[in-house]
Automatic annotation (TrEMBL):
The chain crosses the membrane at residues 46-64, 70-95, 116-136, 313-334, 386-403, 409-429, 441-460, 466-497, 504-524, 536-558, 567-587. The keyword Membrane applies. It comes from the Bacteria. It is a multi-pass membrane protein. This is ComEC/Rec2 family competence protein. InterPro entries: ComA-like_MBL, ComEC_N, Competence_DNA_uptake, Metallo-B-lactamas, RibonucZ/Hydroxyglut_hydro. The keyword Membrane applies. It comes from Terrabacter lapilli. Keywords: Cell membrane, Membrane, Transmembrane, Transmembrane helix. SMART domains: Lactamase_B. It is found in: Cell membrane. Residues 601-773 form the Metallo-beta-lactamase domain. Its main location: membrane.
Length: 843
């Protein structure tokens, strides 16, 4: 036998398999020798070449590209592009030797340097693209007089297109004649095309946010063309609108959205008709999961889904899109459609879904992330997931740079990243530990766990707590989501031609939808459903680091636990003891001087006057929470009631306060809303309690409590008249100075600063600030700068519709070093004078 024989031993075959896995060799010829280098094939390595540059460019776009002057952003884009070009040229230059091009081990530092240059080129190119897009779009939006008119608070006539469905923000009683439900207040985003102001008509392309009251504003549809008269106000730096507006005249709908979107509205209406006879929870959830229509979801179910981390199901999200596309592809396979025709069919289905759900930014974002999620679930394309996600982020940020400041976009992106990176390995690990018939559930269980783990650090700044039931709720609800969505889509399609038949089919979606509702309600009722964590940036970073640490050490910990279970049990017991929540055993705590009662979305404060006597400042929106707070305190008599203004969330619970002996009521002289002012007057007359006004310049002394009133000095017509008529005063209780700011807005705060200058000789040292208007963004930060102490109280309701406290206000307080306490997170909050120290503790 001539020639070499092929290896036949087991070792030889293993070497062949290893060589096959590694892929082809690279042969490099030089003058004298042949150097053979094997290029290993990284099967499991994550492809981060595009994702890392995108992640680095994202915060630069959010905090520089959308805030810095446009000319500076454009300059930055040019500089980044130049650096990208230089790095690309330098990284592409080969290393030559007299004998040829060598790529051996002795030149690895040169190869590493080239890789670094190429990575720098990619990062700078991505940054240049994003900054250029931001500069261009900001220049287009700011062209015209709208921003200037907003700064001047001018009145203007706008011709605009509705850019997003109206979002209701209020269902309160403010301004109603009978003290009951007032006209709804809605937030509507408009894309302004023409503005008429101060005798000049200008064509523009600028977004404006309108806060409109009345059924007309609530009934608007996406892409309606409208005309209205508004008073403009300034937007905050970095906002995705150039001005904020309040209507000053009638709203006129000039044109509808067009035949395509009229047809989409008809389909939505037919879907609602088909689900009309379902159980209430299912009647709300089926349209919500299919097209994001939450108009009929019961309010208590909405709250339960928020508390348990299931609210993403009832909004148009990437998961909805993934289920819809997966169902379409499955149907294509079922009918035998060729593979090459399936992507165009899926694309048409996606386009129809986007039109049906409204092509607003959140829906478009969900569609793109759904495509990436479907890619992640594909066994043949999974390695392309991370580059696809990075590309999707770039495309979306180029289309709308303001998405970089959106929590929704961040959550959607991070959830998709968790699906790409963690869901697969975790699904396989879970499946290995399940009995044979249940192993297909491994990926189903891994998806919600992965999403919750990676999203928790982003959610913390929004709610200040870590949900302990969200993972459980998502695990329990996961089996019901797909059938509800898929059958719901079928109901929507059938309802176009046969509403009655669609109504029968809808019961197939109603049963799993009821399962989702049952999970949400049951999990919301579990004790210890959340862990208070804090809502600061530091708290979010700490949770992120802790999450990464747990993920990295979990395999080692699991291995050690199996070999040393006693040590593991001891660690769990110790951690439970250290992490167990502690609370004040007695309430109110010793040394308390002021308590911000947990009255929901409103104000109700109680100051200690000794011996069971108290002074009450505002009474909350309803009697029962205020009654319960006074009972907990053990108040026996009220020496004075101060009503800062007549909005219902400050005077609605007055009847509960008057159940105890009350010596006197003092209130704002601005009798607006008139209905609430009249109701307070009737209660005072019925209880034979003196009712008088409080004005700037007055001083009060009641027992051991004294107060100086700094506002109102006069009525302000700008902004909210009742809010700007709030009583502002400093109260001294056993040596602690408290600034009570009512609900004043920017206009009144400016007047207080102008007329008093917060003169320390007159005001004294301010130890505690009761933040104005539940932490609204309509504020004057100069007021914060004049407060000596760094303790702030925010009286605010959990999950309120106003977005209070505003993230911008929380940031302003944190930037100034305030220790912030909130009633929505801590319940009743007591200010304690402990020796020379002033601190706060939550019940």
């Amino acid at each position: 036998m001539t020639g070499e024989s092929r290896p036949t031993s087991r070792t030889g075959r293993a070497a062949e398999r290893e060589q096959a896995l590694r892929g082809p060799s690279l042969v490099v010829l030089t003058g004298r020798e042949t150097i053979r280098r094997v290029r290993p094939r990284s099967v499991r390595r994550l492809d981060l070449r595009l994702l890392v540059p995108v992640v680095l460019a994202w915060p630069v776009l959010a905090f520089v590209g959308l805030v810095a002057p446009v000319w500076l952003v454009a300059t930055g884009a040019v500089v980044a592009l130049a650096v990208a070009a230089l790095a690309a040229v330098a990284g592409a230059a080969p290393l030559s030797t007299p004998g040829g091009v060598v790529a051996g081990s002795s030149h690895r530092p040169r190869a590493t340097g080239a890789s670094g240059l190429r990575a720098t080129a990619v990062a700078c190119a991505v940054l240049a693209l994003l900054l250029a897009s931001a500069a261009g779009q900001r220049a287009v939006r700011s062209a015209g007089p709208l921003a200037e008119l907003g700064g001047q608070r001018a009145v203007a006539t706008l011709r605009a297109v509705v850019a997003a469905e109206p979002r209701p923000v209020q269902g309160g009683r403010h301004g109603s004649e009978d003290g009951k439900a007032a006209a709804p207040v809605s937030v509507v985003r408009l894309d302004v095309t023409w503005v008429v102001a101060r005798g000049r008509t200008t064509a523009v392309s600028s977004p404006v946010l309108v806060i409109g009251q009345g059924a007309q504003w609530a009934a608007l549809h996406w892409h309606d063309e409208v005309e209205t008269v508004v008073r403009l106000g300034p937007a905050e730096a970095g906002d995705d609108v150039v001005a904020v507006a309040t209507p000053k005249g009638d709203l006129r709908v000039v044109a509808g959205p067009g035949p395509v979107f009229d047809a989409a509205d008809s389909v939505r209406a037919r879907l609602r008709a088909a689900t009309e006879s379902l159980w209430p929870d299912a009647r709300g959830l089926v349209p919500a999961l299919v097209v994001g229509d939450t108009s009929r979801t019961p309010s208590d179910l909405t709250l339960a889904m928020l508390q348990t981390g299931l609210s993403h199901l009832s909004a148009v999200s990437g998961s909805n899109v993934t289920f819809v596309l997966a169902a379409v592809l499955w149907l294509c396979g079922l009918v035998g459609l060729r593979r090459r025709w399936r992507p165009p069919v899926a694309a048409l289905a996606l386009l129809g879904f986007v039109v049906l759900a409204r092509p607003e930014p959140s829906v478009v974002r969900a569609a793109v992330m759904g495509l990436v999620g479907l890619l992640a679930l594909s066994t043949s394309r999974r390695r392309a997931g991370l580059p696809a996600l990075a590309g999707a982020i770039v495309v979306l940020l180029l289309w709308d740079p303001w998405l970089s400041r959106s929590y929704g976009f961040a959550l959607s992106t991070i959830a998709t990243l968790g699906l790409l990176v963690l869901a697969g390995p975790w699904g396989r690990a879970i499946a290995r530990r399940l009995p044979g018939p249940l192993r297909p559930l491994g990926p189903v269980l891994a998806i919600p766990v992965a999403a919750q783990v990676v999203c928790a650090p982003v959610v913390v700044p929004l709610q200040g707590s870590v949900s302990l039931v969200a993972v459980l709720a998502n695990l329990l609800a996961a089996p019901f989501v797909a059938p509800t969505t898929v059958v719901g889509v079928a109901v929507g399609l059938l309802s176009v031609v046969w509403v009655t038949g669609a109504g029968w089919l809808a019961w197939g979606a109603a049963v799993p939808a009821q399962g989702i509702a049952a999970v949400a309600r049951w999990c919301a009722g579990l004790p210890f459903g959340s862990l208070d964590w804090g809502d600061s940036a530091a708290a979010a970073v700490l949770l992120a680091l802790l999450t990464v640490g747990v993920l990295l050490t979990a395999p080692w910990a699991w291995h050690r636990t199996r070999h040393r279970p006693t040590v593991a049990v001891a660690v769990v017991v110790l951690a439970s003891g250290l992490g167990a929540p502690t609370a004040v055993l007695a309430w109110p705590p010793p040394g308390w001087v002021l308590i911000a009662c947990d009255v929901g979305q409103g104000d109700g404060l109680v100051a200690d006057n000794g011996g069971g006597h108290v002074v009450v400042v505002d009474a909350g929106p309803e009697p029962e929470p205020m009654r319960a707070c006074l009972d907990r305190i053990g108040a026996t008599a009220v020496d004075l009631v101060v009503l800062t203004h007549y909005h219902a969330d400050h005077v609605g619970g007055l009847a509960a306060v008057l159940e105890r002996p009350v010596a006197e009521i003092r209130a704002s002289p601005v009798l607006d809303p008139p209905a609430e002012a009249a109701r307070v007057s009737r209660l005072a007359v019925a209880g034979r309690i003196p009712l008088a006004e409080l004005r700037a310049g007055e001083s009060l002394t009641v027992g051991g409590i004294s107060a100086d009133v700094w506002w109102p000095a006069r009525r302000i017509e700008a902004g909210s008249v009742p809010n700007n008529g709030s009583v502002v005063m400093t109260m001294r209780v056993r040596g602690v100075n408290i600034l009570l700011a009512g609900d004043i807005e920017r206009e009144a705060a400016g007047q207080v600063l102008h007329e008093t200058q917060l003169d320390p000789q007159r005001w004294g040292r301010i130890d505690v600030l009761k933040v104005a208007h539940h932490g609204s963004s309509n504020r004057d930060d100069r007021l914060l700068d004049r407060v000596d102490g760094r303790l702030a109280l925010i009286s605010v309701g959990a999950d309120n519709d106003y977005g209070h406290p505003a993230p911008a206000t929380m940031k302003a307080l944190q930037d100034r070093g305030f220790e912030v306490h909130r009633t929505d997170l801590e319940g009743d909050v007591a200010v304690i004078a402990d020796g020379g120290e002033v601190r706060a503790v939550g019940r």
